[in-house]
Amino acid sequence: MSDEFQEMPEDWTRALAVVAHPDDMEFGAAGAVARWTAAGKTVTYVVASRGEAGIDTMAPEKAAEVREAEQRASAAVVGAAGVEFLDHPDGRIEYSAELRRQFATAIRRHRPELVLGFCHHDHTSTGRWNSPDHRNTGRALLDAVGDAANRWIFPEDGPGPWQGVRYVAISNSPRPTHAVDVGDHIDRAVASLEAHASYLAAMQPPVTDVRGPLLGLAQAMGARFGGRPAIAFELIPR
């Protein structure tokens, strides 16, 4: 792998981001979304769960309401076109044909050229063991891109096959290959993560500084991107 990141392709107009939980996009990719929407591109979010198991001090039913509202507010900060929730159980998302079907249907409906996902590897970019929700969601998404292109797989769903996905990019990957300059969009990335106020306050210890870690991450990625503050992705060959 080259020591320097390559530029993420930007010859596309529509992107679909598919992740497991509210906040997954904000921990690593929101700055890139802010850059893309500022340039007139369309980015839509699909979230497999409502994150109801993510706040220890809040009952799941209430947490689902709070985290859905925070995710919608967070996505609006960076100009996302909308957020759709699939209501899979937080912490118990399973890889299945049904999960692939739902993702393939979303791809067929939104017809993106770029598909964004969260790390599907056993370990994240931090080196820590990845959660089963992330692994199962990410792997089902990679398979669903092929499913969406095949008219004979899940033929009953969606407006027909979509073979127009040109790029699949994975955030928080331990194997990043490409990057996006987010130097002009740090403020929106920070505000987008800060919109998850209830979730951040309930973490142990509570997260009180968002700007510092996000700026540090962007600067660290920028060391392999010509010194420009950046968000890195693993670009999966198509």
UniProtKB/TrEMBL annotation:
Top-rank lineage group of the source organism: Bacteria
PANTHER family named in the record: LMBE FAMILY PROTEIN (PTHR12993:SF28), N-ACETYLGLUCOSAMINYL-PHOSPHATIDYLINOSITOL DE-N-ACETYLASE-RELATED (PTHR12993)
This protein's UniProt keywords: Zinc
Pfam families, sorted: PIG-L
Record bears the keyword Zinc: yes
Keyword hit for Zinc: yes
Protein name: PIG-L deacetylase family protein
